[in-house]
Amino acid sequence: MPDRRVLSAAGLQIREAELKAALEIRELFAQGVLQHDRELSVDRPDGFNMNIVSDETECGTTCCIGGWMFRAMERDRTAPCATAAEYVQRASSRALYPLFFPLQDQRRQWMVDTDGHTYDGPEYIDIAPSQALEAMDNFLATGDPNWPRVLHLENIEVARA
Question: What is the top-level taxon of the source organism (predicted)?
């Protein structure tokens, strides 16, 4: 990503291992390696679906952004826990929650429209690899994946307590 801005791990408030994994997975999206497995058939070696943390069979593997990041860290022996589900749900740096859970903030509050109604949003299953790439680029440059812009949503803001 030489022509793209990337904050440091400290600037993103994530671990160095998470930054390394995020950059690796971002490149897989950019190169078209991770393919949308909308049906969750897990029949391709590099499937992507935001609706599943990680699933693997003899024929292939499908993961969400966090699942793929966990696999990269697991391979590098830098994973902070034993499973992808545990990583995405509890062991990842809090700053990654909005990237892993579109339309939620770091406290996992759902975004609402300007009228205060919870947005039903697109199904995670429908999020395409190109959208994940855009959200990752936003996150790496600013710390905010800006899913509303990526998903072309209007009148969305994060609910505040």
Answer: Bacteria
User: DSSP assignment of 128-158, as one string?
Assistant: -HHHHHHHHHHHHHHS---HHHHTT--SEEE
Structure tokens at 18: 């998470």
Q: Write out 60-77 in H/E/C secondary structure.
A: CEEECHHHHHHHHHHHCC
Residues 144 and 158 sit within 8 Å (Cβ to Cβ): no
Q: Domain residue spans in the chain?
A: 9-158
Residues in CB range of 138: below 8 A, 6 or more apart: 144, 145, 146, 149, 150
What is the per-residue pLDDT across 111-122, written as a single tens digit (0 to 9) for each? 776 777 776 667
Residue 77 dihedral angles phi and psi, to the nearest 5°: 60, 35
111 in helix, strand or coil? strand
Q: Higher model confidence: residue 154 or residue 143?
A: 143
The answer to whether the CB of 48 falls within 8 A of the CB of 34 is yes
* Dihedral sign of CA atoms 144, 150, 156, 161 in order: negative
Contacts of 82 (CB under 8 A, 6+ apart): none
